[in-house]
Design brief:
single chain, 145 residues, alpha+beta, Nuclear Transport Factor 2, Chain: A, 6-stranded mixed β-sheet, 4 helices, 36% strand
């Protein structure tokens, strides 16, 4: 594993740890000042400060006591300062039976050398709808499954 990949993994682990502590400020600090965070319900948060502020409110209410479970599926580098990460994840109070959401992260290296999240888009995986579409139109199935 190269250094950049290890640093990216460490950043996403830092985001998970901040979530698990219910620390919105630390979670927001993982993002760029102009980042976008599109939640799986479709809410759009913009900027590290807003992402941290909103998540603190969530950690104190709807998401109180939850943990962010994440498994990195793929990391692709686009030059030395940009990467795209695909991850499976779930937010739950107990260890989930499966990771039912997918997230695509765009990460950039800041001028100080740290990696930060510039954008994240989260989507709930819908296996039944996916299976139906593959059955009705087999050509829609990805080549690698």
């Amino acid at each position: 594993m190269n250094t950049a990949t290890a640093e990216i993994r460490a950043l996403l682990d830092q985001a998970c740890q901040a979530w698990n502590r219910g620390d919105g400020a630390a979670y927001g600090a993982c993002f760029t000042d102009d980042a976008t965070d599109v939640t799986f319900v479709g809410t759009l948060y913009t900027g590290a400060h807003e992402i941290g502020r909103a998540h603190q409110a969530l950690f104190e209410s709807f998401l109180k006591g939850t943990r962010l479970h994440m498994e990195i599926v793929d990391i692709r580098h686009y030059g030395p300062d940009t990467a795209v990460v695909v991850a499976r994840g779930e937010v739950a109070k107990k260890t989930p039976a499966k990771l039912g959401k997918l997230a695509t992260y765009t990460l950039v290296r800041a001028t100080d050398g740290r990696w930060l999240i510039a954008a994240v888009q989260k989507t709930k995986h819908k296996p039944l709808a996916e299976a139906v579409s593959f059955r009705l139109q087999p050509a829609t199935q990805p080549a690698t499954r």
